[in-house]
């Protein structure tokens, strides 16, 4: 008999090949030979000038999903991977004795293995037998490249993992274990990418601020030179008309210009004297972390109303705005706390209710900042890793799974052929 039947079929031939591999044929027909064939296929494609090897996507269902997973792990030329109902936790299945559905897909090799290991044709197929078969046909799978160990190594390549909730061939807890370990690695990557984005934004803002200060200093210096030469200059937005210098100095009625260094070191933005005329007080400053990248800014103002101060932090911190006298909200989940705002509310006549309202606003702003940061990180994560679990679905590729895979490939490969295929898939022929 051949695999419980006298009829020779393609399935039975495959099972015979598995049994032969168990008994030492030297071949590896359970996934690995096919994976090697596809590696060679990629070698051939790489030689063809019309093939863009930076846009190679692989997907498959069931055994095709398993091969997709293993091929992507072994060959970095796979730019995008989307295994469907093929990722499984081999070790989890053995530990929890959830291998029966997988054994039932090709039982002959397990029956022969049980007979060889136990010395009887009626031996039970238990965890020891299954472990022996997998170690023989997939050497290293339990210790080196099981799903939860190998899928995280695909980072930062885009990976979509799809499975059915009730798939007995790929039990959900084993798939979830792989998805969780993979997501953790991709999440750490997304957080680092967001940190780098914020750092670049901070550097750009610091550069812009430095250029603005330099421009105002140059404008102030030009105004001083204009005054020295007897012409009319401008400081900020205010015209500087020259008055008679008589009586200004005791020596020959000649006024003395301030040193240019004094001008650059002073309040060149608006001029303290002019600001005092309209009853305003304005202050601003920056604090830097190691490396000179500004990460906090603060400003305060008093314009005839309740004075206030704002503070902002970058990274995974938060931002807060509070009245003088209130303590700034700590950065929620941040890289550091915002510095306390030390002025006493009673000294500036602020009521307790106003201070409390300002503090509440600061907390709300910090929470909103955290929410936006979390959304940014989740967006980066979702661009590279997606886990699709269809509730109530057994070992089956659903229409929604197919749509998810097609959209994933289109998003990351963006070839014109994919756009045409998507148009035909979702709109149908005209």
TrEMBL record:
Residue numbers spanned by region Disordered: 234-316
Residue span, Dienelactone hydrolase domain: 40-117
Composition skew (Low complexity), residue ranges: 234-247
SUPFAM superfamilies per UniProt: alpha/beta-Hydrolases
Superkingdom as given in the UniProt entry: Eukaryota
One Gene Ontology term of the molecular function aspect: hydrolase activity
InterPro entries, per database record: AB_hydrolase_fold, Dienelactn_hydro
Biased composition (Polar residues): 296-310
Protein name, as recorded: Dienelactone hydrolase domain-containing protein
Species: Volvox reticuliferus
């Amino acid at each position: 008999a051949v695999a419980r039947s006298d009829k020779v079929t393609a399935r039975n031939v495959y099972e015979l090949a598995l049994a032969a591999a168990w008994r030492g044929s030297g071949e590896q027909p359970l996934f690995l030979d096919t994976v090697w064939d596809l590696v060679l296929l990629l070698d051939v494609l790489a030689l063809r000038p019309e093939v863009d090897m930076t846009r190679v996507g692989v997907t498959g269902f069931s055994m095709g999903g398993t091969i997709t997973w293993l091929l992507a792990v072994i060959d970095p030329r796979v730019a995008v991977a989307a295994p469907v109902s093929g990722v499984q936790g081999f070790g989890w299945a053995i530990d929890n004795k959830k291998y029966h559905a997988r054994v039932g897909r090709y039982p002959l090799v397990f029956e022969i293995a049980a007979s060889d290991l136990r010395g009887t044709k009626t031996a039970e197929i238990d965890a020891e037998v299954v472990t022996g078969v997998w170690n023989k046909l997939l050497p290293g799978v339990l210790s080196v490249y099981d799903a939860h160990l190998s899928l995280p190594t695909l980072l930062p390549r885009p990976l979509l993992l799809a499975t059915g909730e009730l798939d007995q061939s790929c039990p959900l807890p084993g798939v979830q274990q792989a998805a969780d370990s993979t997501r953790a690695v991709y999440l750490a990557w997304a957080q680092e990418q967001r940190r780098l984005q914020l750092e670049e934004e901070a550097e750009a803002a610091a550069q812009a601020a430095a250029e603005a200060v330099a421009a105002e200093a140059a404008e102030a210096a030009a105004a001083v030179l204009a005054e020295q030469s007897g012409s009319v200059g401008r400081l900020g937005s205010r015209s500087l008309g020259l008055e008679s210098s008589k009586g200004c100095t005791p020596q020959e009625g000649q006024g003395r210009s301030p040193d240019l260094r004094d001008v650059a070191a002073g309040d060149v933005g608006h001029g303290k004297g002019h600001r005092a005329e309209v009853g305003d007080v304005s202050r601003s400053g920056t604090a830097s972390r190691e490396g000179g990248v500004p990460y906090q800014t603060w400003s305060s103002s008093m314009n005839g109303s309740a004075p206030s101060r704002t503070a902002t932090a970058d990274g995974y911190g938060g931002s807060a705005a509070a009245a003088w006298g209130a303590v700034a909200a700590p950065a929620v989940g941040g890289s550091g706390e915002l510095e306390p705002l030390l002025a006493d509310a009673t000294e500036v006549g602020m009521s307790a209710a106003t201070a409390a309202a300002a503090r509440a606003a600061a907390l709300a702003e910090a929470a909103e900042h955290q929410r936006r940061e979390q959304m940014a990180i989740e967006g980066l994560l979702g661009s590279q890793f997606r886990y699709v679990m269809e509730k109530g679905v057994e070992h089956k590729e659903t229409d929604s799974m197919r749509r998810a895979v097609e959209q994933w490939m289109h998003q990351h490969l963006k070839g014109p052929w994919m756009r045409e295929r998507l148009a035909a898939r979702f709109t149908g022929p005209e």
